[in-house]
Amino acid sequence: YLVGVGRADCTGPVAQVPLMGYANPEQVGRGLLSRLYSRAFIVAEAEGPARVAFVSADIGMVSQRVRLEVLKQLQSKYGDLYRQDNVILSGTHTHSGPGGYFQYFLFWITSKGLIKPALNSIVNGIVKSIDIAHENMKKGRIFINRGTVENSQINRSPFSYLENPESERKRYSSNTDKEMVVLKMVDEDGHELGLISWFAVHPVSMKNSNHLVNSDNVGYASYLFEQQKNKGMLPGEGSFVAAFASSNLGDVSPNTRGPFCANTGESCDNPQSSCPIGGAAMCMAEGPGNDMFESTRIIGQNIYLKAKELYDKASQEVTGPLRSAHQWVNMSDVSVELNATHTVKTCKPALGHSFAAGTIDGVGAFNFTQGSVEGDPFWDNIRDQLLGEPSNETKACHKPKPILFNTGEMSWPRPWHPDIVDVQIAAIGSLAILAVPGEFTTMSGRRLREAVKSEFDSHGTRGMNVVIAGLCNVYTHYITTYEEYQVQRYEAASTIYGPHTLSAYIQLYRGLAKAIALNATQELPRGPEPPFFNIMDITLLPSLSADKAPAAKTFGDVLEEVSHKYREGEVAEVTFVGANPRNSAENATEHNFLTVERYSNITSSWRVVLNDASWDTRFYWSKGSGGQSNVTIEWHIPAGTEPGAYRLRYFGHYKKRVLLRLVTIPFEGSSSAFQIT
Questions:
Q1: CATH number of the domain at 557-676, out of 2.60.40.2300, 3.90.800.10, 3.30.420.40, 2.30.120.10?
Q2: pTM score, two decimals?
Q3: Rounded distance between C-alpha atoms, residue 502 and residue 458, angstroms
Q4: Which of 126, 552, 608, 665 is the most buried (most CB within 10 A)?
Q5: pLDDT tens, 549-569?
Q6: Which one is catalytic: 34, 63, 160, 253?
Q7: Annotated binding site
């Protein structure tokens, strides 16, 4: 093969933009814990024309809008080299990245519309990572390995899982998939290029009370792996690229202590995830750490250590042709043949009452609980008044789901949910990557993998390694099994195309696998193309205005100084006169907000030892009144930090009114020097 890897920043605006994942409008960005990256891997046949590009980006999910814009840019740069069939775009599913990059209206409600700077950062970051991988193609080899990750996940809907047939459950030792699949990429001289890991866990170690943009547990694993391989480089720099990609994580939580009532401390591991006092809103899962930052590191470190072990021992080489298959499907109208006599259909999209209950990882609002198979007359009445009553056909199709939002029948001011969905498989030799458009639960993923493997087997392509890549291409919420759907916990209420969604996908992915096995991908019907809405920048974000500094101060001045001395384990902290960080995102795609610098006596100069991509630094923005704001920079000094003189620096942009327009002006500030002893 020819192999190329690339990494590019896709962070976007870190202030005022709602974070995407928990659907909590209060959770808006107020700073940065770690940068977000797009990581691209391209594999091409050394002698033939075939190639496959896999991208894992540190975002909540890939939206249809992002995918269509990326493909458009790739088409104009590379012609027919990168297409909808051979490019997979997957989101890691961090819940701490900026939202606002969707074209369907439901997602506008919690992310304040379509936010162009957020959308553009993601699209440009993905394209740039592919550009870098494309330019760095070299002869290489790929190895695969798999192993078990312990102590890093629980099933957050165990009562749903128990609805699956006992005979099926008996075949598995756990109610989550503990297997990690790792690809190791090296060039022909054995120099290391990169790694892709697929492992099923929700990146929700950071809670919905967090306001710092970051890539959560899987992003921390990427950071550890890349820091280890790119020795001596700053975070985000260096040629080795390590992606920790999502899989069938639908019902999988990293909050391994399980659910407890926040007010009383008792367990609320019950079918409704509800507490005696305070109901479902009090039932929250806890991670292994003392706080969410520590939990993120513990889970991330576990994942990293297993990946490192599997990577170091990987010896099974991946060889064989590259093939890819893709179709667009109208998922609101698929006929599924369950058997010779029985055909069922998918439904127009709709969300059930338990969607509003949220999960033990991020609870919902009002008095909604998980496992609602009856509607609530109060909320149904409000829905009918505001949004219109669902049709009898849609109600019947979704049974036993009581419909809260009949999104498939709502098109004002534009459609609320997608109908046209991508299904896609890319095969690299004996590895088949199933790019799925949402969050498959543990058992749904097992059924899909098994069906695709047996399809390959029955057409003579034996022994395929089948892996699910989650959150790809377009977001369609969850996919539960038919049995899990019957009890309507959060994941089932969010299975938007109805009870037979999984059966429809199994039928579709079997069709793709068969086409690949028989070398007949050219004969697959393309399907109906998704719409590309002509949207102006419609957003409820406050518009950027002139920044102001307090009297007798200027931007970058220190308001609260560092101490003179710190030890390992302490936090160095400085507060500056700040400006809106959105000014910087609009000005440069890869703006660095801070550095930690160490004084070198040898060269008599300051040397940068950390940037804002480091997990040891935190950048907080707090908005005051009258255009004033403060920035606080923290450095959580890790064990093993070299003693010496250090300082913290801040880099920002302020907006100033000149005549009738706003101009953006860069500035910087620095703390005093301090000693680490």
A1: 2.60.40.2300
A2: 0.98
A3: 21
A4: 126
A5: 999 999 999 999 999 999 999
A6: 253
A7: 93, 202, 439, 478
